Amino acid sequence: MLVPALVLLLAQGQAARPETPLAPAPDPSAADRAFAARAAEVGVNAAFLEVLGQDAALFQPHPVVGRTWMQIHPDDGQLAWEPRAQVVSRAGDLGVTLGTYTYSREGEVLSAGHYVSVWMRSGEGPWRLLADLGTPHAAPATEVPYSRFALAPRRDGEASAPNLSQQETFLRKVEGDLAEVLAAGRDPGLATVFWADDHTVVLRPGTPPAFGQDPAAAEQRNAWQGGRRIRQGLSRVVLARSGDLAITWGDLAPLVEGAAAGGRSGIEASAGGWLRVWRNDPDEDAWRILAEVVLPPQ
Predict the structure, then answer these.
(1) C-alpha span between 234 and 223 (Å, rounded)
(2) Is 255 helix (H, G, I), strand (E, B) or coil?
(3) Residues 93-102, buried b or exposed e (16+ Cβ, 10 A)?
(4) pTM of the predicted model over 0.90
(5) Which end of the chain is more exposed for a tag (fewer CB within 10 A), N or C?
(6) Which residue has the higher pLDDT, 159 or 218?
(7) Domain 4-139 falls in which CATH fold?
């Protein structure tokens, strides 16, 4: 729910870890609501430092090390948010929340929109925030159909043990292929192979969430590129132990002549960021995009 356009890393000056451990929450939405309540109680900066994993990413608008960024970028604004939908892996170790946020200062609302938060936990321990980013936009003209954000139905019977190494290799290959398309200055049409159905949500700054194969979603998917040659860096691939849910993210920047597709020689000041949520379709045994957030480079 941190909005890159306003650098919403809200701080109240508290950088210490909490004195008491986080109480385990039953699912990511419960953890997200407890997180929001905690932020209202102790301040947003302190609340973030309580839940951020050691290697968690915040997007400003490119991905940065969350804990370090929160400690050195104070802000006196107020951030309130509410999760409206979630997806959780069968293993219960990886989850994503989609919700609404409002940012204000001294009673004046400065920005509002939607956010995506990625949560991860070990065993029955507390959920930790793994990645967080937001897209500001005006109030939607119609109700957002949050119920469409869901994993594919599970097949009956026992699921076979996933080969996570093989799955990660596949996702890295797909992201590499998409990076080559963006570097060539073409619309990433390859991605349409992975846009399965009405479950998919597309988030871009300036527009409300769009879903599935709706015309608004199709328009939002590629409009941000504007014919530019874009370098897409890949920072992270995270898979659930059950192999049914995965997260990928990285940075975006206008491609400098001579730079390699997908290469990273440092984060440019104009860089943007991206995050994709992937679901493994049990009926087709294929990965599909469940959510895509793009924060375009300048």
Answers:
(1) 21
(2) coil
(3) bbbbbbbbbe
(4) no
(5) C
(6) 218
(7) Nuclear Transport Factor 2; Chain: A, (3.10.450)
* Cα atoms in the Cβ-side hemisphere of radius 13 Å centred on 215: 0
Tell me which CATH code domain 164-295 carries: 3.10.450.50
The residues spanned by each domain of the chain are 4-139, 164-295
Best CA proximity match to 246, nearest among 139, 156, 191, 170: 170
Burial class (CB in 10 A: 0-12, 13-18, 19+), 91: middle
- Tens-place pLDDT, residues 174-209: 999 989 989 988 877 656 656 656 788 999 999 999
The one-letter code for the residue type at 119 is W
